[in-house]
C-alpha cells in the first residue's frame, strides 16, 4: 500500500466530458495504471475536473514534463505527484479576474506568454484564474498589461499567500467532525454548534466582488442569507455572515479549513466554538495589528505550518495564531516586524487575550513601502465603493412594517415605478438571474391610480438582497426603485428636494432627466402622482436643483425638505434625516385598492418613504394614528366616531340606540388614552367571549381587536343597508376597499367561517341595543327583488399567475353569487386551507368573440338566418363538446350527441323560498331570460326550475352558476334534458358526523380542486355526498381530509358512481 501511494499523481484541467476510458487510453503508454478516481465531476462551480491516478512505477521527470505540454481533449494537462504538492506563491503567481466561460486556459497561456514563461494556468472558476510564471520578473510585467482578452479587460492582482495547485486534495475535508477539529486546535466544543447554520467569514479583501464570494461559498450548500460589512480589525478586509439552509452544509464549510479563493484564504468560524482558556505553548498572540490574515500567514509559515488564525476580537483587536509545533511558536514570538510593520507578539494566555492593550508606537519616522502601497490601494478602493453605493438607497429599519401572511409573503422586496400591467410572470422573468419570485402583491392609492408599490416575495433572503442591488435599473423603459420591504428610505435633507405640482403626464424618467442636467441623481422617489423626492449626489447640486421651475413644458414647485412649509404641514425629521409624519399612516393590506388617506397619510403632496404597514387602524395603542381630525370620508368631516373626546359611539348611533337596562358595571374604559363608551365596551366583551376559540382573534393585540370591531360598527352606522346584506355580500363590501374600512389587513387574516361569525355577532349586538324599527330588516327578511345597491368604485383582483391586474366591476345586484377561482385554491396534503372571501362579481359579455375568418354582420330584428346566428351556434356547439369532454363523457358519444337546439337551462336544488322572480333576476346577468317555469324536483325540500334564454351562448354562460351557494343551498345548473356521466377515478364519497350540510362539505372540499359534480344519496341520517373532481390529483388530496371547516369529522373514500 505504501508503494502505491508513492506513485500516485494528480491530473488537473480535465474536461467535464472526459470519461475514465478516455484518460486510461491516453495514459496507456506511460505505465500500468493500478488506481483511478475522478473528482469534481458534478461540481457546478469548477469548469473542469481532476483525477488521482496510481501507477505501478513512478513517472520519470521527462515524462512528467512532457505530459504537462500535451493537450487532452483540447485542454493542456497539469500533472504533479501527490508526494510533492506545488503551490501558487506570491513571488511567482498572479490572479486574473473578471473572466467568463468563453476564455479558456489556452487563451490565457497565449495571452501571458508575451511577458514571460508560463509554468501553469489553472481556472478554478469561470470568473478567475491563476497564472504561475517561472521567474519573478514576469510578475511586474503581467501587472502592467493593458491588452484586452477576447474583448475583456482582465483585472490582474497579486497572490497574497501560498495557494495549493490541487483543486481538491485526496482528503477534501481537513477534519472528520467538529469534535475532532476542536480537539486538534484546542477549541472548546459545544454540542449546540452541530446545529448552527450561520458562520462568520473573515479576511475578505475589500476589492473582492461580493457576488463572487457568495458563489464560492455556495459550493457547500444552499445559502439563504448573506451580509458583508467592513472588518473592525483590518481596514483592508471585510467580514461576512453566511447562513446555510441546513446545519450539515455549515459543518462542511467549517471543517474544510481555510478557503482559498482568488489568491487569498478566507477563515471560517462557528460562533459557538471559542478558543480554549488554557495556556498553550503552540499559540501566540499578536497585539493590536492592522495586518491582513494573509500577511500574518505568510510570515509565520516561514517558521512552521500555521494551523489556525483567529481574528474576531473587535474590542482589543488581538490575533490568535496557532502553529504546528512549540518551536515554531517560540520562533514566531521573537518576530518584531511582519510585512514591514512593527508588531508585538506574546505567548498565548486567556488573560492576556482579553486584557486591554494599546497600539504600538513606532520610532521609525518613515512609512514602510508596503504601507504606502496599501494607502494608495485603499484610496482606489474607496472610490470604487463610492461609485457602487451611488446605486444603493440609504435605508433604515422600518419598525412599522407589517406582513399580512408571512407564510406566503416571505423575504419581500418593495419595487416602485414598475409598469401598470406588469404581473408575476414579468417580474419572475426579469429577476430570474438573481432569484425566484414566488409571490406578488400590489398596493395602490386607489384602483385606477398609476402610482403604486409592488411587493415581491423571494425564496431566500439572499435573493431578495441581491435584487435590491438592481436599484435604478430599467424594466420596460422604467427606472425601478428597489429596497427591502422592512426598510424605509432615509431622505437626507442636505441632498434631497421635494418636487410638487406633478401630473400624470410627467413620468419619473422626465423628472430624472431634468435634474440630471444639473448633476448626478441618486434616486427619484415618487409615492404619489402629485409629488416626488429627488436626491442629488452632492450638496452643491441641491442648491441648483431648488431653482428648477419646469419639468418639460409643465411648471413645478421645488422646496427643501427642511422648509418651513413642510414643518407647518406636520412633517418632522429625526437626526438621520428620515421623513416622519405626525399622523402615521396605515395602508390597507388587501391586494386591491386602499383609501388614499389611509395609504399616504394626512399631509398631501408629501412623500413618506415606504409607507408604514402596521394594521393599527385609526386608533393604535399609543393614540390616534390613522389620519387628521378633519378626515373627509364616508363618516363625514367629524371623523367616524363623532364629536367629543369621550364619545366612542357617534351621535348617529347614540341617537338611535337605547342603552341596556340597568347600570353598566365598572367605570369608563380607556384605550390609547381615550375613553370608550359602556356600549362599545359591552360589544367588545361579547365578541371576546364568543370568539374565544378563534386563534386568529386571540393572537391580535387588544388595540387591533378593538380597531377591527370599531370599523365594522362604523359600517353599520354610515351605511344602513349593510345590515340587510347576507354574509357573503358583507364580506364583499368590506374587501372592496373604497368604503372607509381601514382594518382590511386584519380582517383578511381570518378564515371565511370566522369572518361570518364575527359579522353575525356584531350585527346581533347592534340590533339588540337599537330602537325597534330603526334599522333595516335583516338579510333573511329583506326583499331580494328590490333594486340592489351598487357598490362604489372597483376592486383590483390580483392572482399569482396573471400577468396583469384584472379590474372587476361589481354587479348592480347584491344577490350576485360568488364565483370560484381555481387559482385561489391551494392544495394541501393534510389540512386544506380555509376558503378565501368571495371576490367581487364581474360582468361578462353576452356576445361571443368572432374568429378571424368570420365576418360580424349586424342585422336588425331577429338573428335567424344571420351571421350572428351561425356564430352563436358554432360557438355553443364547440363549447358544449369541450365541456362534455372535461366532465368525463365519452368523446365518441359526445360527438354523436345532438345538444338541445333550444337554450333551456335547468336549475335544481333551489330552496323552497326561491321564487321565479328571484331566479330570473339571478340569471339575468348572462342574458335575456324569456321565461322561468317550475318543474318537478327529485330532491326533497327543494325546487327545480327551467329557464329559457334568448341564445344558446347565453344559456352556456349561465352554467357558471353551477355549484354556487344560493340562499344557503348549493344549486346545480345544467342544460335541460341532459345527463351527467361521472368519471371512474375522480369520484369520492363523503360522510360526516353531526348535522349533514352540503354547503359545509362543498366549502371544505373545494379547496382541493375544482368540483364538477355533486350529489347527495342515502336516507336521512346516512347521507353520502358524492363529489366528482376535474383532476385526479384533487381527488387524491381530498381523501386526506378528516375535518370540515365547521369542526365536524368527516371521512372521504373512493366511490364507484356507476354502481349506484
TrEMBL record:
This is RRM domain-containing protein. Residues 7-84, 92-162, 197-280, 426-487, 903-978 form the RRM domain. Residues 805-853 are annotated as: Disordered. GO terms for molecular function: RNA binding. The keyword Secreted does not apply. Residues 819-831 have a biased composition (Acidic residues). It comes from the Eukaryota. Keywords: Repeat, RNA-binding. It comes from Anopheles christyi. Pfam families: RRM_1 (PF00076). Residues 832-841 have a biased composition (Pro residues). Gene3D superfamilies: 3.30.70.330. PROSITE patterns: RRM.
Amino acid at each position: 500500500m505504501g508503494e502505491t501511494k508513492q506513485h500516485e499523481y494528480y491530473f488537473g484541467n480535465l474536461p467535464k466530458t472526459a470519461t475514465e476510458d478516455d484518460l486510461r487510453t491516453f495514459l496507456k503508454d506511460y505505465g500500468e495504471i493500478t488506481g483511478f478516481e475522478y473528482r469534481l465531476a458534478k461540481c457546478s462551480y469548477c469548469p473542469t475536473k481532476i483525477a488521482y491516478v496510481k501507477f505501478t512505477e513512478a513517472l520519470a521527470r521527462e515524462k512528467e514534463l512532457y505530459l504537462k505540454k500535451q493537450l487532452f481533449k483540447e485542454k493542456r494537462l497539469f500533472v504533479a505527484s501527490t508526494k510533492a504538492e506545488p503551490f501558487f506563491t506570491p513571488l511567482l503567481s498572479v490572479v486574473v479576474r473578471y473572466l467568463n466561460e468563453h476564455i479558456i486556459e489556452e487563451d490565457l497561456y497565449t495571452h501571458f506568454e508575451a511577458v514571460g514563461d508560463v509554468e501553469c494556468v489553472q481556472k478554478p472558476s469561470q470568473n478567475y484564474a491563476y497564472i504561475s510564471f517561472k521567474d519573478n520578473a514576469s510578475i511586474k510585467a503581467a501587472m502592467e498589461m493593458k491588452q484586452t482578452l477576447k474583448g475583456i479587460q482582465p483585472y490582474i492582482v497579486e497572490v497574497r499567500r501560498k495557494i495549493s495547485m490541487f483543486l481538491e486534495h485526496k482528503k477534501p475535508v481537513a477534519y472528520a467532525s467538529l469534535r475532532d477539529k476542536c480537539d486538534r486546535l484546542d477549541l472548546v466544543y459545544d454540542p449546540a454548534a452541530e446545529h448552527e447554520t450561520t458562520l462568520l467569514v473573515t479576511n475578505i479583501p475589500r476589492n473582492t466582488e461580493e457576488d463572487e464570494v457568495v458563489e464560492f461559498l455556495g459550493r457547500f450548500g444552499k445559502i439563504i442569507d448573506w451580509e458583508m460589512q467592513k472588518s473592525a480589525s483590518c481596514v483592508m478586509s471585510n467580514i461576512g455572515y453566511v447562513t446555510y439552509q441546513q446545519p450539515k452544509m455549515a459543518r462542511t464549510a467549517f471543517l474544510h479549513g481555510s478557503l482559498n479563493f482568488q489568491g487569498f484564504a478566507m477563515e471560517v468560524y462557528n460562533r459557538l466554538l471559542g478558543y480554549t482558556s488554557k495556556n498553550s505553548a503552540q499559540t501566540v498572540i499578536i497585539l493590536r495589528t492592522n495586518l491582513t490574515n494573509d500577511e500574518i500567514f505568510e510570515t509565520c509559515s516561514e517558521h512552521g505550518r500555521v494551523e489556525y488564525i483567529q481574528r474576531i476580537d473587535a474590542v482589543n483587536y488581538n490575533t490568535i495564531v496557532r502553529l504546528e509545533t512549540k518551536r515554531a511558536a517560540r520562533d514566531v514570538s521573537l518576530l518584531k516586524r511582519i510585512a514591514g510593520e512593527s508588531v508585538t507578539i506574546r505567548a498565548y494566555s486567556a488573560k492576556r487575550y482579553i486584557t486591554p492593550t494599546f497600539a504600538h508606537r513606532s520610532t521609525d519616522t518613515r512609512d514602510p513601502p508596503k504601507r504606502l502601497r496599501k494607502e494608495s490601494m485603499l484610496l482606489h478602493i474607496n472610490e470604487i465603493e463610492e461609485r457602487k453605493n451611488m446605486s444603493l438607497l440609504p435605508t433604515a429599519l422600518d419598525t412599522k412594517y407589517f406582513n399580512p401572511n408571512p407564510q406566503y409573503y416571505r423575504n419581500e422586496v418593495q419595487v416602485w415605478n414598475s409598469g401598470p400591467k406588469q404581473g408575476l410572470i414579468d417580474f419572475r422573468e426579469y429577476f430570474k438571474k438573481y432569484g425566484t419570485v414566488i409571490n406578488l402583491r400590489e398596493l395602490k392609492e386607489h384602483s385606477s391610480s398609476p402610482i403604486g408599490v409592488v411587493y415581491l416575495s423571494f425564496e431566500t433572503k439572499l435573493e431578495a438582497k441581491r435584487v435590491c442591488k438592481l436599484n435604478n435599473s430599467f424594466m420596460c423603459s422604467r427606472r425601478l426603485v428597489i429596497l427591502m420591504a422592512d426598510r424605509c428610505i432615509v431622505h437626507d435633507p442636505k441632498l434631497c428636494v421635494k418636487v410638487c405640482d406633478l401630473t400624470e403626464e410627467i413620468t419619473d424618467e422626465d423628472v430624472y432627466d431634468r435634474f440630471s442636467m444639473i448633476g448626478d441623481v441618486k434616486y427619484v422617489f415618487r409615492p404619489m402622482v402629485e409629488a416626488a423626492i429627488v436626491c442629488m449626489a452632492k450638496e452643491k447640486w441641491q442648491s441648483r436643483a431648488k431653482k428648477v421651475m419646469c419639468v418639460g413644458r409643465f411648471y413645478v414647485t421645488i422646496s427643501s425638505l427642511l422648509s418651513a412649509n413642510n414643518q407647518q404641514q406636520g412633517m418632522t425629521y429625526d437626526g438621520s434625516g428620515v421623513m416622519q409624519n405626525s399622523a402615521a399612516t396605515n395602508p390597507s393590506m388587501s391586494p386591491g385598492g386602499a383609501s388614499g388617506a389611509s395609504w399616504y397619510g394626512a399631509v398631501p403632496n408629501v412623500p413618506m418613504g415606504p409607507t408604514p404597514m402596521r394594521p393599527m387602524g385609526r386608533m393604535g395603542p399609543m393614540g390616534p394614528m390613522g389620519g387628521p381630525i378633519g378626515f373627509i370620508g364616508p363618516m363625514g368631516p367629524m371623523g367616524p366616531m363623532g364629536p367629543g373626546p369621550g364619545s366612542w359611539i357617534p351621535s348617529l348611533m347614540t341617537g338611535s340606540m337605547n342603552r341596556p337596562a340597568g347600570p353598566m358595571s365598572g367605570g369608563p374604559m380607556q384605550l390609547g388614552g381615550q375613553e370608550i363608551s359602556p356600549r362599545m365596551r359591552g360589544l367588545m366583551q361579547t365578541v371576546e367571549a364568543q370568539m374565544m376559540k378563534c386563534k386568529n382573534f386571540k393572537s391580535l393585540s387588544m388595540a387591533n381587536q378593538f380597531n377591527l370591531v370599531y370599523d365594522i360598527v362604523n359600517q353599520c352606522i354610515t351605511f344602513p343597508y349593510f345590515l340587510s346584506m347576507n354574509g357573503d355580500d358583507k364580506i364583499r363590501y368590506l374587501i372592496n376597499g373604497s368604503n372607509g374600512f381601514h382594518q382590511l389587513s386584519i380582517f383578511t387574516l381570518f378564515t371565511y367561517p370566522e369572518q361570518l361569525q364575527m359579522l353575525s355577532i356584531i350585527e346581533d349586538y347592534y340590533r339588540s341595543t337599537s330602537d325597534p324599527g330603526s334599522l333595516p330588516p335583516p338579510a333573511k327578511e329583506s326583499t331580494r327583488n328590490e333594486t340592489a345597491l351598487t357598490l362604489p368604485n372597483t376592486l383590483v383582483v390580483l392572482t399569482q399567475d396573471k400577468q396583469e391586474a384584472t379590474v372587476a366591476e361589481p354587479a348592480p345586484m347584491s344577490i350576485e353569487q360568488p364565483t370560484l377561482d381555481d387559482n385561489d385554491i391551494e392544495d394541501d396534503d393534510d389540512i386544506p386551507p380555509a376558503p378565501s372571501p368571495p371576490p367581487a362579481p364581474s360582468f361578462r359579455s353576452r356576445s361571443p368573440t368572432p374568429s378571424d375568418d368570420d365576418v360580424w354582420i349586424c342585422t336588425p330584428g331577429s338573428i335567424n338566418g344571420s351571421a350572428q346566428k351561425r356564430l352563436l351556434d358554432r360557438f355553443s356547439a364547440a363549447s358544449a363538446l369541450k365541456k362534455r369532454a372535461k366532465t368525463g363523457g365519452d368523446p365518441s358519444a359526445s360527438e354523436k350527441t345532438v345538444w338541445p337546439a333550444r337554450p333551456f337551462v335547468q336549475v335544481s336544488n333551489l330552496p323552497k323560498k326561491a321564487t321565479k322572480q328571484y331566479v330570473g333576476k339571478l340569471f339575468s346577468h348572462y342574458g335575456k331570460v324569456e321565461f322561468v317555469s317550475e318543474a318537478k324536483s327529485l330532491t326533497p325540500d327543494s325546487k327545480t326550475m327551467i329557464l329559457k334564454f334568448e341564445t344558446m351562448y347565453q344559456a352556456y354562460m349561465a352554467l357558471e352558476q353551477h355549484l354556487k351557494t344560493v340562499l344557503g343551498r348549493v344549486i346545480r345548473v345544467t342544460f335541460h334534458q341532459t345527463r351527467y356521466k361521472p368519471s371512474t377515478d375522480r369520484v369520492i364519497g363523503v360522510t360526516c358526523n353531526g348535522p349533514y350540510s352540503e354547503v359545509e362539505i362543498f366549502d371544505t372540499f373545494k379547496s382541493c380542486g375544482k368540483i364538477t359534480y355533486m350529489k347527495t344519496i342515502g336516507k336521512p341520517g346516512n347521507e353520502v355526498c358524492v363529489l366528482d373532481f376535474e383532476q385526479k390529483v384533487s381527488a387524491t388530496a381530498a381523501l386526506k381530509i378528516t375535518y370540515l371547516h365547521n369542526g365536524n369529522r368527516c371521512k372521504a373514500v373512493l366511490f364507484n358512481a356507476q354502481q349506484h
